[in-house]
Amino acid sequence: MSSTTHTETSKFSLSMLINDTRYRSTTFQVIALIGLIFAMGYLVSNLLSNLADAGLNISWRFFGETAGYDINQMPIEYDNQMSHGRASLVGAVNTLIVAFLACVSATVLGVIAGVLRLSNNWVVSKLMAIYVEAFRNVPVLVWILIIFLVMSNVLPQPREFRGDAAASSMWFDMVAFTNRGVYIPRMIMGDLSWFVVGTFALSIAGVFVFRRYARHLLFSTGRLIPTVLPSIGILIIPTVVAYLLLGRPIGLEYPVLKGFNFSGGLHLRLSLIALWFALAIYTGAFIAENVRAGIQAISHGQTEAAAALGMRPGRIMSLIILPQALRVIVPPLISQYLNITKNSSLAIAVGYMDITGTLGGITLNQTGRAIECILVLMLFYLVISLSISAIMNVYNNAMKLKER
Amino acid sequence: MSDTPNIGFVRHEPIPPSPPPVQQAGVVKWVRENLFSNWVNSILTILSIYFVVKIILASTPWMWNGVWTTSSLRECREVLQGTSGACWSVLAERWNQMLFGFQYPVEAYWRPTLAFVLLLICIAPILFQKLPRNMLIFSAIYPFLAFWLIWGGTLLTPVIVALSLIAGYLAFVKVERLTGFATALLSGVAAVVLVLYLGSFVTSALPEFIALEPVASRDMGGFMLNLILGTVCVSLSIPLGIVLALGRQSNMPIIKGICVVFIEFIRGVPLITLLFVANVVLSYFFPPGTNLDLILRVIIMITLFSAAYIAEVIRGGLAALPRGQYEAADSLGLDYPQAMRLIILPQALKISIPGIVNVAVGLFKDTTLVSVISMFDLVGMIRGPISSSTAWTGIYWELYLFAILLFFVVCYGISQYSQWLERQLRTDHH
What we know:
The structure holds 2 protein chains of 2 kinds. Chain A has 12 helices and 7 strands. Chain A is mainly α.
């Protein structure tokens, strides 16, 4: 019997750290780790000595100190006697507001433009192609500034609304477009209004339950019941009934011209509108391309196969094409939402007080705590990005083609 | 023959086909089928035509009546006397500031212009594989030439940097034959540093040797600054992006972790916060006494930013390669650096080019963000010195149309190239 005995334990030499594949990766990682620690240590020691030279230190106490500046859009309660932390929070909420508005409008715009670009109508599809190419190939900052400048130069001043023979007038006495912003009616929530809101939320849940039931009925018995009209009914009727029964608890407050300016109502500043529209139109062009690519990715054979099975065009779209196209469309769509959130930091160019304007702008300049401010600013955006990515991963896993 | 004597007339050629009905042919058919096939389509067509006509009617006279020769907006309005017309004089008077910034010496405008023209020649062989390969030699020389043209100073500086890189490459090749990749890389870096160190004596001894008038970085501005930032940052970030992508694909958990954290951090924050870092924080991290100018700090941060995005694109390319390519490289006995350089990266980079080009377009547009940290790029020039000058306060359409035009031409051109390349690279047949 030929017995080759392995003497693995013996003869470990230093050169094996490099030449032996069993140890090499560990060696490299240790070297990389040591290098990283040294680089970090070097940077931090530079930072500390520079801070010491400038007589500075790292401190987070300024977040509790009085901010002392006003913010022109306050979705939550704030005045200039409150702390820097509170000011940053107001900015964060403003960021989320503009990002949400822009995401919704960009999606609507992008879906419409993407579908129309595939239309057989030559004029319409060419027009949409021009829209997509024109807006995709020019920086969003330019669009933000242009929309802001055009609105503030073209729209009338509030005083032009005065008098009997006013140069400008409000739309339906409800909406006023001025160069200081747009004034729209505001909802006044009465004491009982929460019941109405609650009823509406329950109706939305009710619609989902109803549609589930209809689908269950279809799959188990093959009976097809109408869903569209009942859904609308479930959505609207209880809310309206509750609204009337409770004595109209939700009212509207209209903007009214007082002196040289409007008061009452909801004041949407030009900075918000410019940022919102520019982000929506710019990102809408990208979403249009995603939608077009998604629809084109579904081969025509799918449509033909469904038609051969005797399905109607509407059902082909909703049961065959859309579920497959959405799998292609949704991941890039969500990364466009991420881009909107990140691009909303351009608010600083038009003076919209988002978190970059409050924490990264005025607070940073007043306190001089650049490192702390920018660190928190980055963490804020990072948290939003990572949570959106996490949602996307969950969606991707749920939607993944189940291959067996 | 004699069976059919009574037939008086026999047609020998077929009747020519009659033309289709007017409604089913030519323009009319096309219009009916494409523009007015049903009522939704008809409404859309009419709305779009109305919209287009309205825009053309409003903008054409405005553009056509434009004034080119006045020296302020007030004079423009006097000339126009209330009629609709653009005040193009602002472009006639300030075009040089919008292109080169307001501090770049006027007599040296030919230098960045020449550098830009040469840039086109430099990237042509990289973009189009059919051009003669010898042109790549010029592409290799170009960065040093462009540096000399734009920043000025003695020609010796870029020459010595080029020499040091050549020396480093030679040392790398020589040593790699004898030992492995890592030692070769180290000795290459050592050679570069050595030549740079020796060269610094030569440049300080001969500062006027074939010298152009030096221009400081802070004097750069206008569209030139956008182009400089775009090209420099994209070309620097590609090698960094390759390293990050390979790190993220590697099996070593620590290296992979470092790369993932870096990439996800950079991709999670807006570029503007990174520019804030460049503006106010970055100098704290350098050794006391170093004083990098702003443009250099901005280049560092934008390069890191685009490297993270390019790394993701290249990672996609690496992941798209069939597993067999990796196994084939292993079975040939190639070690990791050889396998990457000879087998994997050439293929992975080739399929990543369209993605990289898209990142480059996005990055080029994002260079306008530097105007927020008070650098005077094209948008910064428009918002700052030009709009706030007494002569041109209140003018905006003309200036921004110019900016739109410049960016559109560059970005649309690059994206068309990218789509062309995607068609070229597509090897399956539809």
